[in-house]
Write a structure and sequence with these properties.
Strand content: 5-15%
Strand order of the largest sheet: 4-6-7-8-5-9
Shape: elongated
Helix content: 40-55%
Number of helices: 27
Mean pLDDT: 79
Number of strands: 12
């Protein structure tokens, strides 16, 4: 049996070594999977951590343990098979001389299984030389399948890992049994040992494969890109990459806005060939900083890994290195402050443009860690990723939703997605889009699947917030009404304030959510730049105080929610006075009060003056909120009744309620 498949020099040597050292007279269906597994795992070509369970990942020599265990298991399987075959007349040994030879061989070493010799396999090495290996039934089929898969996947030379990939693809029973006996995860190993996966691993040296992965291999250019929009940010990143020097980018944005998704879109453009011409053969390599440092018990271990990483980057001019949580490179790999860390090791190649590094981090971490190292931050150009507006969320995640729908086998229409966007805004106000909407879509599809439904409806969405409904049902009627007045007050002041034109009211909920008993959702309109006069800040303060004012129409006492609003308004007023010098009275002198470590200017007299000005500004804002609510008091009561009935109302529903009110009023 001769196959048109080239075997690597390493594979040929290892196969020859097995034939010699294992005293095999041919490869059979039992010993072949065991030997290939042993070669692929213990030869050092792949990390054993990909295969063995945590129980094997001890402080001892994992490789030696696996080798020993496999050898013992091989002997056990061979002896067992020989015992089962002893009744077959074809294998009986009538010749006493042969029996004596077998007994002698048993004393010298382990018994070897004698299966039927099916023929010889002719393999070609990289130099073109032919090699003949006797095989038993079944093994020849594996080599035949290997030849086909190598051709289909453009694999020039087959390694032991490729032979193992064929066995996984064919689900060889002995291999499954072996994994069960060793305690290794067969399903996880099957994900690793694929031709596509091995092609990706081949791009990264073994020493670096534990903390680096090629993102190109995760992209299927035949399918539409799941990341839509963000074209402006992607174009900005490509322009930075096209520079001669300092071609590095740091993507800054809140958690959940899609920083990593930008890299997915850039990688898709590279794989699909829609990127700038210069980058069509580039690889995007993801660096896991935590894995880089993990397991470095002795001083110098991390330094050695960092050196190997830098050498890898210097040798290749077609690599884009992506580092999520890029601020973690500061101090990574150093034992004490001042020692060489990953950040300092990268600085030379970052400045000269020898490689391209794209990092991602949040605004808080960028300010706290990254920007504190001026030598590092100046080598990166910042790209800001803002949270999408509510109207932009669906067009941005449309392909992602299709992928989720295909995965779960559950349908969902656009109107339901828009409902989910509103619910996500109310119940996960502190989180960011598009992540919070996608998460709720995913969970709603799971709920629909568990309930045996084919399509997501409102019940499937709201079922994810049953605890909030239980809390709401446990409230008294007075408590619900109080919350309704509070949130309706915020909405009315926000909607009818002349200066808050940059604020768009999205939804009002009187259902408990996260740290809130109720919430009024709004977003800042990017197409409107407010004229930030003192009147704007007064209306902004009035918006914070609107719930407090409306609540007092129902109950004279002040609740904790109303107190929190007063705290927010006071802090804003303090900023207006101390940072912008906007005093409450027009005829007051323009004085800026600064209280910081650099400008410690607060005396007791100054503090009293600031407190007095803050109080005046808050009083003016409170009066402004009272005036707006008093002007729209009738609509306030109507809105409260609607909220008590519906619990959650969208911008569209509240606007419709307002138009109906105007029609009745004007009749």
């Amino acid at each position: 049996m001769s196959f048109k498949v080239c075997m690597s020099e390493r594979t040929i040597k290892l196969l020859d070594k097995c034939m010699e050292e294992k005293e095999l007279w041919h490869f059979d269906a039992i010993n072949f999977p065991i030997l290939i597994y042993e070669l692929a795992v213990c030869d050092g070509s792949l990390l054993a951590e990909h295969l063995v369970d945590e129980i094997l990942e001890s402080d001892g020599d994992v490789e030696a343990y696996v080798t020993m265990y496999l050898t013992e298991k091989q002997i056990e399987l061979e002896i067992k098979d020989e015992t089962e075959s002893s009744g077959d007349g074809e294998h009986k040994q009538d010749d006493q001389t042969k029996k004596g030879d077998e007994a002698k061989k048993t004393e010298e070493g382990p018994k070897r299984y004698k299966s039927e010799h099916d023929g010889d396999v002719i393999l070609t090495d990289e130099s073109g030389k032919k090699h003949k290996y006797p095989v038993a039934q079944g093994v020849g089929l594996i080599f035949g399948r290997l030849a086909i898969m190598c051709k289909e996947n453009d694999t020039p030379c087959a390694d032991p890992e490729h032979i193992l990939a064929v066995m996984f693809d064919e689900d060889v029973p002995v291999l499954k049994q072996l994994f069960s006996e060793v305690g290794a995860n067969y399903r996880e190993a099957k994900k690793v040992f694929t031709f596509a996966g091995l092609a990706g691993n081949a791009k990264i040296p073994t020493a670096l494969s534990g903390f680096m992965t090629c993102l190109n291999d995760r992209i299927d250019a035949k399918k539409p890109c799941e990341i839509l929009m963000r074209d402006k940010e992607v174009e900005q990143i490509w322009n930075i990459c096209l520079k001669k020097n300092k071609r590095n980018t740091v993507i800054v944005g809140e958690a959940g806005v899609g920083k990593s998704a930008l890299m997915e879109k850039i990688t898709y453009q590279i794989v699909s060939g829609t990127c700038p011409e210069r980058f069509k053969d580039f690889m995007v390599i993801n660096l896991d900083v935590n894995s880089l440092i993990a397991g470095t018990k002795f001083r110098g271990d991390a330094e050695q890994r960092i050196k190997e990483l830098i050498a890898y980057l210097k040798e290749r001019d077609n690599v884009i290195l992506f580092i999520d949580e890029v601020h973690t490179i500061l101090g990574a790999g150093s034992c004490y402050e001042g020692e060489m860390d990953l950040a300092n090791a990268l600085k030379p190649i970052l400045a000269r443009g020898e490689t391209i590094v794209i990092g991602a981090t949040t605004e808080e971490e960028y300010i706290r860690f990254f920007s504190s190292d001026s030598a590092l931050s100046r080598r990166f150009e910042r790209v800001d990723v803002k949270e999408p507006l509510t109207d932009e969320v669906y067009p941005m995640i449309e392909n992602k939703i299709r992928a989720l729908s295909k995965f779960h086998g559950i349908r969902i229409d656009r109107s339901m997605v828009e409902y989910i966007i509103m619910i996500a805004n109310c119940f996960a106000f502190e989180k960011k889009n598009p992540d919070k909407t996608l998460d709720l879509v995913d969970r709603s599809m799971v709920t629909a699947y568990r309930q045996g439904k084919k399509k997501v409806n409102k019940e499937c969405v709201l079922a994810n917030f049953q605890i909030q409904f239980d809390m709401f049902d446990g409230m008294g009627e007075d408590s619900r009404t109080e919350i309704a007045y509070h949130e309706a007050g915020h909405y009315i002041v926000g909607k009818f304030s002349d200066k808050l034109i940059s604020h768009r009211m999205l939804a009002v909920s009187i259902m408990p959510a996260e740290e809130y008993l109720g919430i009024t959702c709004f977003e800042y309109r990017r197409d409107v730049i407010p004229f930030t006069s003192k009147q704007y800040f007064i209306d902004l303060l009035a918006f914070s105080l609107g719930g407090r004012v409306a609540e007092k129409l129902f109950r004279k006492e002040i609740t904790s929610g109303a107190s929190a609003d007063l705290n927010t308004a006071t802090c804003t007023a303090f900023e207006v006075i101390t940072r912008y010098g906007m005093t409450a009275e027009e005829n007051e002198r323009n004085t800026i009060f600064i209280n910081s470590d650099r400008y410690p200017m607060f005396s007791e007299k100054t503090k009293d003056l600031v407190i007095e000005e803050v109080q005046k500004l808050v009083d003016i804002a409170y009066a402004r909120a009272e005036a707006i609510i008093d002007e729209h008091k009738d609509f306030l009561h109507i809105l409260v009744r609607a909220l008590l009935k519906n619990h959650i109302m969208s911008e569209k529903q509240m606007e419709s309620l307002w138009q109906s009110y105007l029609k009745r009023k004007n009749k």
